[in-house]
Every structure is written in C-alpha cells, then in structure tokens.
C-alpha cells in the first residue's frame, strides 16, 4: 500500500489521506436536506391536511382557483428571485402591475386599441419602469430599498392620476374568458399555467445553468469579488430589474383581464406577498443563495394557507399574522441552521485533531503554514 509522507510527521496511507470528497455530504443529503425541500414537504403536508379536514377544500375547483389567484405572484416571484439573490430588492412591482392595468384600460376602452396592442405598450412601459429602477441602483449606486420605495409611490401615483377613482370594465368577453380558461375541458388547471411554466423553465435555465445566473449568485455573495472575476455587476443588476418590470407588467395585464377591471389601486400590497413567498422559498435576504423551485413552492404554500383559512372563516388579519409568523420563522431558521452547522464543524475539527494527537498522525493541517508545507 502506498503512503503519503508529510514534512515533520509520520507517513499517511491512502485510506488515511483526507480529501474534499471525503468531507462532502452524500448527494441525497445535499438534495433533500435543504430549505427548498423543507418548503415543498410543508406545502404537501398542509395541502393534504386541508383536503382531509376542511370542507369544500377537496372539491374540483380548489386547485383551479388556487392557481388563478396565485398566478400574478407566481409570475412576479420569478424575476424577484434574481433581484433578491443579487442582494437587492424591488418594492415597486405591485405599482407596475397597477400602472400596466390602467394603461390597458385606457388604451383599449378610451383609445380603441386592441388588447394585444395595448398589452404590448403596457409591457414596454413596464420595461421602462424596471430600467429606471435598475439605472438608479446599478449605475448611480443608490440603495435599492430607498429607490423602489420612491418608485412604488411614483408609479402608483401615475396610475391613480391617469384614472382617478374610475374603473374601466368594458373588456371583450373572449379576453376575460381567456384569463379564466382551463387547459382542457373539466381540468383543474387554468390556461395561465402554460405561460407561467414556460417562463419558469426559462428562468431556471438562466439562473442555474448559465454564466449570467452564476454571476447573479456571485454578486449576492460578494459584488467586489464578482467584479474581479469578470462579472459585469452593474449590467447584471440592471437586467434583473428590467425583467422584474416586464414580468410585473405582464402580470398586470392578466390581473386586469381576470378581474375584468382596470383600476389605479389594483394589486395594492402584492409586493409584500411576493417578497414573503421568495424569502419563505429559501432565498437569503442577504443575497447569494436560493433556488426557484423553493420559491414556487413558497408561493403555492402561501396560496394554500390563504384558501384553507378563508374556507374556515378566518379574517384577512388572522391570515396575515399566520403568514408573517411563518416568514419570520423561515428567516430565523436559516441563521439558526448556519450557527448549528458552524458549531458542529468546529466540534468535528477539534475531535479530529485530538484523535490525531493521540495516534501521532496528522489528518488535518493545523494552520496555513502547515498547508503550504504539505
């Protein structure tokens, strides 16, 4: 058996030589023992409990209306995940939803434009809104929280100023029916899931399997280090805000057609639901960590809790308290798990060193000088 000799120490056999692979967790642990899988497990558990204990929850319309009502949040959560992973935040998304809703109403009802043309213009305005946020954050260097709080008020003010307290409701039935259409006759899944699924696949591929996505994670971990590794930090942040504006405008078009009403106060408060779902889904508020499958599960979990508690007769305030507590626990859990992991790693390192001292073998380097010597 071959051996490995270390300067100033005894020889180590190949079996005793430590490698990174020796310390890595098995694949099943890395896949299942994650916050994202915990959220998915909790979603399944809550859904099954609600189906078995709440009257009417297991009816054929439950999934149908669940997906219809959570569709705008599912859409906006996709780009919001990227924004938060970079260490930024966008609080103006719901205002962009309201602004695009107003534009569709005015352009179609008053100006006589078709829904596709009015929708295209609304999405273009959403891109401009996102680009304005991105420019101030990425190139001017202003904090995203302050910028998007300001643009939240700005975009909402423009929406209310354009329409006032009036509501535009004269939309063609073929378009309002399309927003509620099912994938097939008698199906529990609405047609809106098709664009959501397509966008989700695209965002997963971009975020997890492209250099751009790796740059998003690197920026969230350390934007200065990302810059020195060749990531265009400003451009990456700018693109994420533009995507958030465009998808929010698209969600506003769906919101308008689904409810059949264009109002300046549409989707008020939705930004908090989106951010809650993103953080609940395992994305770190400090950036650099997260996965889209956990975010989608977080959105559906909040939707299931909302639906179940409404059927049980709970008020909106009680539902918000439950979701708020769940969100706080999810944020605390990440810090708690990191602390436990660091504590466990420290204990394991100390145990290995004590064993090495007892046996006269050196399985771990004591310091940087020893690593360099080896």
TrEMBL record:
Region (Disordered): 354-374
CDD domains per the UniProt record, alphabetical: TM_PBP1_transp_AraH_like
InterPro entries membership: ABC_transp_permease
Recorded topology in the membrane: Multi-pass membrane protein
Organism domain of life: Bacteria
Pfam families with a match to the protein in the record: BPD_transp_2
Cellular localization per UniProt: Cell membrane
Biased composition (Basic and acidic residues): 363-374
Transmembrane segments: 27-50, 62-85, 91-109, 116-139, 145-165, 186-209, 238-260, 272-305, 317-344
Alphabetic keyword roster: Cell inner membrane, Cell membrane, Membrane, Transmembrane, Transmembrane helix, Transport
Main location: membrane
PANTHER family per record: ABC TRANSPORTER PERMEASE PROTEIN YPHD-RELATED-RELATED, AUTOINDUCER 2 IMPORT SYSTEM PERMEASE PROTEIN LSRD
Designated name of the protein: Autoinducer 2 import system permease protein LsrD
Species per Swiss-Prot/TrEMBL record: Nocardioides kribbensis
């Amino acid at each position: 058996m071959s051996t490995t000799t270390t300067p100033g120490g005894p020889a180590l056999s190949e079996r005793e030589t430590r490698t990174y692979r020796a310390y890595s967790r098995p694949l099943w642990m890395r896949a299942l023992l994650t916050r994202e899988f915990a959220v998915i497990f909790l979603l399944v558990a809550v859904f099954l409990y609600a189906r078995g204990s709440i009257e009417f929850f297991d009816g054929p319309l439950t999934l149908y209306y669940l997906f219809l009502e959570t569709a705008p949040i599912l859409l906006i959560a996709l780009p919001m995940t990227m924004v938060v992973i970079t260490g930024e935040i966008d609080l103006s998304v719901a205002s962009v939803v309201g602004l695009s809703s107003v534009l569709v109403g005015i352009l179609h009802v008053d100006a006589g434009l078709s829904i596709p043309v009015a929708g295209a213009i609304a999405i273009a305005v959403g891109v401009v809104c996102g680009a304005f946020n991105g420019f101030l954050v990425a190139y001017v260097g202003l904090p995203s929280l302050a910028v998007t709080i300001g643009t939240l008020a700005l975009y909402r003010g423009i929406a209310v100023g354009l329409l006032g307290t009036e509501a535009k409701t004269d939309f063609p039935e073929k378009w309002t029916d399309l927003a509620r259409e099912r994938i097939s006759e008698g199906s529990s899944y609405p047609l809106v899931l098709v664009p959501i699924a397509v966008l989700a696949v695209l965002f997963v591929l971009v975020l997890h399997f492209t250099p751009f996505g790796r740059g998003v994670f690197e920026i969230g971990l350390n934007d200065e280090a990302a810059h020195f590794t060749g990531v265009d930090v400003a451009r990456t942040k700018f693109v994420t805000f533009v995507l958030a504006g465009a998808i929010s405008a698209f969600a506003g078009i769906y919101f308008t057609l689904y409810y059949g009403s264009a109002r300046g106060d549409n989707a008020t408060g939705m930004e908090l639901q989106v951010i809650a779902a993103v953080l609940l889904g395992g994305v770190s508020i400090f950036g650099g960590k997260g996965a889209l499958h956990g975010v989608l599960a977080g959105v559906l979990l909040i939707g299931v809790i909302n639906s179940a508690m409404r059927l049980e007769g709970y008020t909106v305030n009680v539902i918000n308290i439950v979701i708020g507590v769940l969100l706080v626990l999810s944020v605390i859990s990440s810090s708690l798990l990191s602390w436990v992991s660091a504590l466990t790693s420290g204990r394991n390192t100390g145990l290995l060193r004590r064993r090495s001292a007892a046996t006269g073998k050196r399985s771990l380097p004591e310091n940087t000088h020893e690593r360099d010597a080896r």
